[in-house]
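Re: beginner question about structure tokens

> Can someone show what the tokenized structure looks like for a real chain? I only ever see the sequence side.

Sure, here's an example I had lying around. Input first:
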Amino acid sequence: MKGQPISGASAGAVVRGGRGRRRRGAGLTAVAGTLLLLVTACGGGDPASGDKGAPGKNGAGQVANAASEAVVTVAPKDGAESVPTSGSLKVTAEKGKLSTVTVTDSKGRPVEGTLAADGTSWQPVRHLAAATRYKVHAVAEDAEGRESARDTTFTTLVPKNTFIGQYTPEDGQTVGVGMPVSIRFSRGITDPEAVEAGIKVTAVPAVPVEGHWFGNDRLDFRPEKYWKPGTKVTVELNLDGVEGRPGVYGKQAKKFAFTIGRSQVSTVDASAKTMTVVRDGKTLKTIPITAGAPATTTYNGQMVISEKYKVTRMNGATVGFGGEYDIKDVPHAMRLSTSGTFIHGNYWASAGTFGSANVSHGCVGLRDVRGAWDGSTPAAWFYDNSIIGDVVVVKNSKDKQIQPDNGLNGWNMPWSEWTK
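And the corresponding structure tokens:
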């Protein structure tokens, strides 16, 4: 049967004759001739050459039914348990080449693998999932085309310690052109190459997307320049079974996607005290603002809106300003940095402040009303016309450039450094 080891078997019957008594008459001659014919037909030999039909290289039936010389070996051994998720599975062939290798999990999902150029070995392209039973079916052929098969099963280990990745943006979300894929891991990672290999980010239309680690618990992905509007981005977290640090395994198998919306980049000129909003290359509006005061200047650089709040509380004690302020109802607030930089509405400063003085503690303020009820204010307009992932660029402030890991602000790192 094809796909199974072929056992050897005799192809023809062996006829043995004894000495009988010699009888007279034509009938005896005919019988003797008939017996000779039967011996020749069954034995397949050539009387002239003396070949009696014994097994050998000229016995075609013998070769056709001989066992394959190919030997298939699967590691780990059949029935093995607690198998490591990486580096354990390998299929090899001796005295032949592998023609078929299929590995599936308990749900029938295939494991992708690569066959060596010489056809003698196969390995999976990535790690296996933890706590999973796998079935292996492998077939090899020898030089004569005869097949030998091997079927085994094994079960991977059940990890005691695990990690997951918390990610942004959310599945199905439409975001601005500056939104990176940002993943924060629940445990510090000591094998970043293994973890990064378990994550796949693809874009349509296609564009190179590279990952960059910030410390040992955060991995961001982005293209070299802002995303093209309309791009569809898909992220696959194949972390189940990845050993991120000794004895700590990922337990996440997740796929999510998001869409890049229109392009909106707003530029704050801290010196001129204005913000110019540009969408898809067209200037929508220039808004008077107030930026950081001389003692508490605003960071320069490219910042991505990561959160939006119609009304929120801002307490200076949470960002190193002690009791200098505690405003319980800041309207139209949008986060630009982890350290507390926002662009938000300001109802406590006089209308004449905006466009003429920088008085904030480092945020960018726009004129607003208490309670965020008036949709005609500059702050309300900007809030309503902004989405997560939009870019706000601050320039001409007497401060340093914001750090790439302070918020979703990796755009402040040169591509040559990002891809190191």
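Each token stands for a local structural state, so reading them left to right follows the chain. The CA atoms of residues 79 and 154 lie 5 Å apart.
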